Amino acid sequence: MGLSKRRMLAPIAIIGAAGFALAGCSGGPGSTGNNDGDSGDTGDSVVTVYGTIADTEAELLEQSWADWEEENGIDIQYEASKEFEAQIAVRAQGGNAPDLAIFPQPGLMADMAARGYLVEAPDAVKANVEEGWSEDWGAYATVDDTLYGAPLMASVKGWIWYSPSYFTEKGYEVPTDWQGLLDLTAQIQADEAKAPWCIGFGSDAATGWPGTDWIEDLVLRQAGPDVYDQWVANEVPFTDPQISSAFEEFGKIALNPDYVNAGFGDVKSIVTTPFGDPATALVNGDCALHHQASFYDGFITDAGGEVAEDGDIWAFIMPPFEGGGSSDGAVVTGGGEIVAAFDDSEATQKVQEFLSSSDWANARVALGGVISANKGLDPEQASSNILKEAISILQADTTTFRFDASDLMPSAVGAGTFWKGMVDWVNGSSTDTVLGQIEAGWPSE
What we know:
It contains 20 helices and eleven strands.
């Protein structure tokens, strides 16, 4: 799952506990029919937007476009849902689609486009995408050579969060390869006689997605970007040894009762631990290591920790295998959202154009907690050093970047059998059985 779906399905205001109340909004998707394009008339045009971004993040989202709404006479009515993946299809089929949807997974957006529910992006959005986004990012919003939307926010995945002062006290160094990370894990366990890692898969209807992030990071680092791309396209199936090897490597941590689940219980507690809760365990010193994307900065801050190289918590990117990877730059996975439209009214097009612009990206990032891969984004707008570093990674020409694989796969797999498979695997199902079940989720066509 991508940045917002994963980030926003648990509140950050209450120490990262899972489960969101829906964001306060005055209208739901398809709740109005007056998108008549009278953008010069104050309050006469309503554009409904549906997504997963909730609670504090939803308030910031609405704040990011508030001035623009007033200037353009368009009322953007936003609704969030924890059941977005299932409900967006239901609403579209029932004729109750929103004007715009913020898709956390390009694969789900592609499904909706292939079924004829989405409209082609207008020329102004196409121009913004060409100017502000890399070809790869533009491709994530393209289906059968047709651009349907534009990227919104982004995240860099694969960060390992830790306490710098604890590392200094113990003489630990940031590892430079995967084996070094395993060795560090073993050393911490031996020194402390307790599990070093805290892991949470819990995310309501999306439970299991944090595990898919681990697998994606490992496939990219161990097998390389070409195999990663073939895996996304199912040219390399889940049952391939190159994919099962990633599970094996993750299992060296996640399935080892000596290594997990610090502060929460045994291996099986991974599934029941809300993904935001390890932020508190990190800040309290209950766990030493945690794997999560750049957005976790906000969870740690809400848990009372200062995120800085000399602060309470900092992070390093999951290292490559055997000291390898790209010698020219970072090798990372990441996520984001795509904003696509269900109608082509003038007001809808204007909102979609604004959300695809560098003006919106700078306005939203300046409010804190998030980043964007828009080329026109000033990294100094970011609210923390870890987010500035993440923006630099996204904007660097030397970075090898791959979008979250589960978000690119058909939703039946990426938001279905893959999530469920991670849960079953942690709960004791064999790797071969789980990989076969995940692969069986691929559509026949």
